[in-house]
Amino acid sequence: HMSVLDNVLVAVANQSGENLGKLFSQPWQVAKEESENRRKAIAYLEFVGVAEKTQELAKDISFAEQKSLAMACMLATEAEVLLIDELVSGIDPALIDKEMEMIRELANAGKTVCIIEHNLDVVKNVADFAYFLAEGKVIATGTPEKLIADPKLAELYFGT
Questions:
Q1: DSSP string, 86-140
Q2: pLDDT tens digits, residue range 84-126?
Q3: Confidence (pTM)
Q4: CA distances from 160 to 47, 136, 137, 153, 155 (A)
Q5: Which of 27, 37, 70, 124 has its CA 20 to 30 A from that of 102?
Q6: Tens digit of pLDDT for each residue in 50-62?
Q7: How many CB atoms lie within 10 A of CB 134?
Q8: Residue 138 has pLDDT above 70, yes or no
Q9: Is the dihedral of CA 115, 116, 122, 125 positive or negative?
Q10: Measured between alpha carbons, how far is 45 from 61 in angstroms, rounded to an integer?
């Protein structure tokens, strides 16, 4: 029951406004930080493509937009390593290229991006290195092209 913007703002770590001492002793500093956090949150929402939804309740936006919102929240943490599970699962195939471009931009900006993904086209197009897992165990590692070309892995993946 929070707005899209508020969801991203809550994800920002170590906010001065969370400290009652600073809130009362340095209100100007807290206000300045809140303004900067708001600017960054809107920038993250622009990056993921849902900035026009800032005032809508998160529960009222589409599934794909909720996935983008989750990405904006993750970016708001300013973590250097990002773990993304099933980025394109359940979204319109027309949006997949946009999501892959976003991942490439994050990697180019110096972020380490780990993706758990079953869509082989996504893996092939964005991954530098891949792990093939079966029943929770690493079966093979290498470039996506190498793994996709392996007939034994294809048999495991497709069950043929």
A1: -TTTTS-GGGHHHHHHHHHHHHHTT-EEEEE---HHHHHHH-SSEEEEETTEEEE
A2: 999 888 888 888 888 889 999 999 999 999 999 888 888 998 9
A3: 0.83
A4: 40, 20, 20, 10, 5
A5: 37
A6: 999 999 999 999 9
A7: 11
A8: yes
A9: positive
A10: 13
Cβ within 8 Å of residue 68, ≥6 positions away? 48, 49, 50
**Residue located via tokens 């993750």:** 74
- Taking the C-alpha atoms of residue 160 and residue 8, their distance in angstroms, rounded to an integer, is 44
Task: Output the six-digit token pair for 4.
Answer: 């899209």
Residue 85, amino acid: D
Q: Which two tokens stand for residue 23?
A: 């809130």
Token match 């994050």: residue?
Answer: 106
Residue whose token pair is 């590692």: 141
Q: In whole angstroms, give the CA distance from residue 118 to residue 75.
A: 23
Q: Is 155 exposed, middle or buried (0-12, 13-18, 19+ CB in 10 A)?
A: exposed
